[in-house]
Each structure stands twice: as C-alpha cells, then as structure tokens.
Design a protein that fits this description.
- The C terminus is likely disordered.
- Among the domains are: 91 residues, no CATH class; 161 residues, Ammonium transporter fold, CATH 1.10.3430.10; 116 residues, Serine Threonine Protein Phosphatase 5, Tetratricopeptide repeat, CATH 1.25.40.
- It is elongated, with a radius of gyration of 36 Å.
- It is 59% helix and 0% strand.
- The chain contains 30 helices and no strands.
- It is an all-alpha fold.
- It holds the Pfam family Ank_2.
- Its main location: membrane.
Length: 571
Amino acid sequence: MRLDYGSIRAGLYGYNGCLTAMAIAHFSFGSDSPQIIGPVVLMSACSTVILVAIGKLLVVRLGLSPFTFSSQVCSFLWLLGALKFRYFFLNGTLVAPELLTAVVEKPRLSNVSAVWYSVIDIFAGFPASVSEVYFLDSPLTGVIILVGVFICSSILSFFALFGAVTGQLSAAYLFGLPAEAIHMGLWGYNSVLTCQALGGMFFVLSGYQIWLFTLFGSVITVLVQAAVSAFFSPIGMPPLMLPSTLTCWLFCLMAGSSKNMIAVKLIAVSIPEDHSRRFRLTSLIKMHFEFMNNLSTILQKFGHDEDISIEELATIEVELVPILLCSYAHQNDRRSLKALLHEGADVNSTDYDLRSPLHLAACGGKTELCLKLIRNFRANVNLVDEFGGTPLYDAFCHGNFHLIPFFYACGARMPVCKTKELAFYLCAFSFEGNLEAVQYLIACGVNPNFADYDGRTALHLAVCGNHFSLVKHLVEESNASLSVVDYYSQTPIQDALRLPDYRIADYLQHWRDHPSKQKPRKINILMENILYDNDNYDQDEKEEEDDELTGNISSGVEESLLPALFCIMII
C-alpha cells in the first residue's frame, strides 16, 4: 500500500491488526489450529484498510484519533459472518456472555439489597481489567502489563489502574453484577482505555479539572458499555472496546470548547510526561514574556487566551527557548536558567549564531555558571557556533584563562578550523611576552612551530621581544624548534644574535649544542580552585533553591530579546 514509513515504524498500522487477531483467536474454537491463520491474516490486513479509510474522515476532517475502531469493525464482521461459515465455529459461551449484560430480572423495589463481593474478587478484578484489554482474564498478566507500561510511562500505568478501579467499582455499584464478572475484570477494561486516553495521552495533564474529566469519563464508559451490551445482547455480540472509543470521541470533540481541557494534536501525541513537560515549559516562557503582551503581532501568533494551546508548544519551544536560555546565560541569571532547564529545555539550544548558553557563559568568564551547565546539565563542551568557535576558544579569546583548565579537563578542545587564528594568537602573545596565554595555547594542543605570514614562529617573536622566560618555556617545555627558517632566511638564534643582550643567544646556542630531555607539555595551573573550592558556589546554589523559580525579568533581558523577537515576527 506504500503508506507513510514513519507511521509504519511507529506501529500505527499494526496495533489494530494485533487486536483483531487476538479477538478472532479468543472467540473462536480451535485457536491453536492452523485453520485459524487464514482469517487472522485476512481480517488483520482488512483492519489496516479500514483504518486508512476512516482516517480520511476522522483524522483529516475532525482531528480525531481512530483509536481501535477499525479492529472492532473487523472483529464484528468476522464474528457475525462466522455464524454462517461452515468450517469456522465460535465459542458460544464467550460470544453471548451473560456476564457482560446487566441484571435482566430486576427485583422489586422493596426487595432491593446490596450485593457484597469478597476482597479477592475486588482486588483481583483490578489487574484483570488491564489484561482484558488483550482478551485475557489473568490478574497476574495484568500486573505484568502494568509493569511494562510503567517502564514506558508511569502516568499511563497509573491511569490504567485508575480506570480499572473506577470502572469496576462503578459497575458493581450501579448494576449489582455477579462476583465472577468483577473477578474477571469484564467491566473495567474499557475504563482502562478511556482513562489512559484522557489522562495525559490525548490531553495535557494540567489542573485538577482534567482529573475530574477523567473520572467522569471512566463512569460514562461504564454506562455506555451497559447500553452497548444491552444493544448487542440479542445478536450475541460482545461490546469489545466500542464503549471506550465512543467515550473518547465524545470528550475529544468537546475539548476545543473547554479551556480546562488542552487537547494534543495527533501529530504531537507522545507520552503524558512529555506533554506535561512541554506545557510547564511553555507556561514558564509565557510568564517570562508578559512584558511584551502589548505587541499585537505576538498575541496573534501565540493566542489571546490565558492558556497557550498545545498547538503552539513546539513553535514556542523551538523559537523562544534558545533565546531565553542564551539571554539568561549572558545576564548570569542562574535562577531563571535553572528553571527552564529543569522543565526540560535543551541545554545545547542555540541562538541565531548557533551559540549555546555555554558559549555565552565562557565569553563572560562566569565560572559558576559554566560549572553548573557542564556538571549538572551535561552541556556539550565542543559545540561549534556559526563562526567556528567552541566554548574553550571563546573563553581564551575573551581572556578568561581561569576557565581553560576546567574546560580542558571536561574534554573541551580548540576547534580545528581555527588553526590559523590560534597560530596568530600564539605569535602575538609570544611577541608581547604573555607567558600565561602561551602556556594555555600550547597546553591545549596548539603547535608551537606554527608560523605566521612571514614564516616566523612563536620562538622567533619571543626572541625579537627579548622575553627570556618565554623563550626558555618554548624551548624546554614546548618542544619549539631552533632550526625553523622564516621568509628572511633567519633562525631564532640568528635573531637573538642581533639583540644587544646576548643572554638569549647564549642560551639558545648552548641548548642547540647540548640538548636536554624536554619536559612534557602540560597546564601548570592548579585546578583545585575551580573544581573543588566551591564553598561560595554551593552557598549560592542553596540560596537559589530557597528562592522562587519564577520572577520578574530585568530590563536588560528585555532589551536583549527584542531584536530576536522582531526577527521571528518577520519570518
């Protein structure tokens, strides 16, 4: 059929076929016989065709998920057709289950009495309701399924159990069902599906109202199941999962009319944890941008209502989060930066110049912020920006040498594309006599024998500047060559001979004639002050945790965000 490959990989065209196959095997005699393979393959394939067909109406026009409707249609087609098939038989005790119908013979009003259930029936029925989704009535299987769902999403696992409990108890109270029906979980599996759909899968789990909606949906599902069971009872058909599908459609259709129910677009459906994270992050961003509510273009783009709908979450996360993160890093606003990162913002988000918060923190020499971004949030220390710079390169270029040992110890390296610039810096610092800068450059991997446009190395320029200590460092610790000839056919020794002070010339000639074992290159600056002496940093962290995570934004942040926001509006 050449359907969308991404949807196939996500299993969207397979789960209905899976349910159809289990339904056919469950309601038919001889499910272990090869004879059942043909109907299973045929009807499973048919479920995909029906899914695509009804998707044109439900998904495209109404924005509704088909849920398991195609599997129910195929299952009903097979069950009804099998009544006339000669070589296929149905299990009559399952197709016409009396346990799935409410009490037929109602007692007189004066004789109405409560039905009591054993503790075993009640508690065994809860996990059995979960297993009944897959046509099994085993409480142990239900527990295993709950554990499997919990590994993927703890919220979905909770709402599966929540639906089983509320559905079973509602059915027992309203209908006075037999104990066997409660024990098998026959009146809870539809509520399981409804609560999972409403409790965070297709709606954002935000506010107490969604809990009330989910509870109400679970009870409504039980009532719908009773009505569907009574409707199908004359023809001996089970309700399958039709009650939960009808209830979910009902709530999804009314979602746009209620501000308390924030629906998730089908293309953005994920696990409830992801929806909640993005909603909290978006709400936090909106609060930070309240100072711009007077801009009509922003209001038109992101809505006039108090709550941002789920449709704008992806746009806000992509366009505004990087701007806020980089602005907070530039302003050293660790509290606001921490709030966004704890809500799931990507610490490696970049602005229009592909600069991450770590780039800006390195440029400003903010030691504590760099520590936090790398150690707490695992920021990428080798992220390259639009100009080819890394955080280590930016820290060096802005003279923040105290950050270089920490960055280097965390795996940061100088960018390969900046080799010429680094060679220029090495030569310039050598001529100036900046020993500290030269030490850091060479320790970070810059070759001391790189030459400038005149073919002169760092040793040439250190000699010309008459910097004896720097010359000694280049020769003894950096493996600088004494025989490199520049474009004027001069070696460092020949340059030294022209100096009025012959100390450097004598040293170089002695080193040439009596070379000693050279020391390995290393950073000679201790890192304990950065890595371990963090008493003030820990105290600041404690004060930040005591403060509220939200607050007013300084005017400096507003000014830094305005140009980027106007660029977004133009786009």
